[in-house]
Amino acid sequence: KVIIRSHGVHPRILARLRRHGFEIIDATCPRVRRAQRYVHKLTKEGYHVVIVGEKDHPEVKGLMGYAGKNAEIYSEQMKIKKRKIGVVPQTTLDLGHFNSAIAHLMERVIEMKIYNTICMATVLRINEAVRIVNKADAMLIVGGKNSANTARLYQLCKEHKPSYHIESAEEITVDWFKDAKSIGVTAGASTPKEQVDEVIKFLKKKFPR
After folding, report:
1. DSSP class of residue 146?
2. pLDDT for 74-115, tens place per residue?
3. Domain 121-206 - what CATH class?
4. I want to staple 49 with a disulfide (CB 3.0 to 4.6 A). Which of 44, 71, 149, 152 is the partner?
């Protein structure tokens, strides 16, 4: 029995698992699955697919597989040889980064078809983090160290206030907040609620008001 994680996988991996008779439990996020369908559709329609996202992210690796050799990952330095491209973003991509990529690509192609597959929950989470960081003296960002969207939240917060990326309450050092009157907490999209609740419970115990 094999469980496919929310990021999805390269279709070649799925084919190999089926060929070997594994029972597959596909937990691919519906939004990621939709992005996979769009990439496949664009390829069938003859577009050169450009994926806007982090090249080492598992979701992006999977998306590339649905376009075969007819795709590349966006970078500002890329040399676009095709005049007809289709663009799909990583679902957890920052919306501002996606808009910048689109503006850059539009100057270099004749025809471009865009599918915006960014998860709006991610956008709302970023907006909420900005709201919290503007009110807090320090921030805790809860989530896996390998989570791309959690890392993005951490980078965003630390530009404004002292911020700490943790996976659990056990990692918290009380001295981090010796000069803080208020502590903000946010979390990555895939962080379990119980994990966040544990952090908040710890803070309330250590810093009673």
Report:
1. T
2. 998 888 877 799 999 999 888 889 999 999 999 888 899 999
3. alpha beta
4. 71
Written as six digits, the tokens of 116 are 């915006």
Question: Would you state the structure tokens that stand for residue 30, as one six-digit string?
Answer: 């519906």
Are the C-beta atoms of 17 and 24 separated by less than 8 Å?
yes
From the number of C-beta atoms within 10 Å of its C-beta (0-12, 13-18, 19+), residue 102 rates as middle
The answer to whether the CB of 87 falls within 8 A of the CB of 113 is yes
List the strands of the sheet with 183-187, edge to edge. 163-166, 138-142, 183-187
Q: From the candidates 59, 107, 111, 198, which is the catalytic residue? A: 59
Instruction: Tell me the C-alpha distance between 191 and 194, whole Å.
Output: 8
Domain extent listing, the chain: 29-118, 121-206
Beta bridge partners of 114: 87
Which of 156, 93, 88 has the alpha carbon at shortest distance from 128? 156
DSSP SS3 for 30: helix
Distance CA 206, CA 209 (A): 10
Is 128 a catalytic site residue?
no
Stated as kind and residue range, the H or E segment containing 61 is helix 58-65
- Which residues contact residue 110 at a Cβ distance below 8 angstroms, ignoring those fewer than 6 apart? 83, 84
User: Where do runs of H (alpha helix) occur along 83-181?
Assistant: 95-106, 120-133, 148-158
Q: What is the DSSP letter of 47?
A: P
- Was domain 29-118 assigned CATH 3.40.1010.20? yes
Backbone angles phi, psi at 92, to 5 degrees: -105, 15
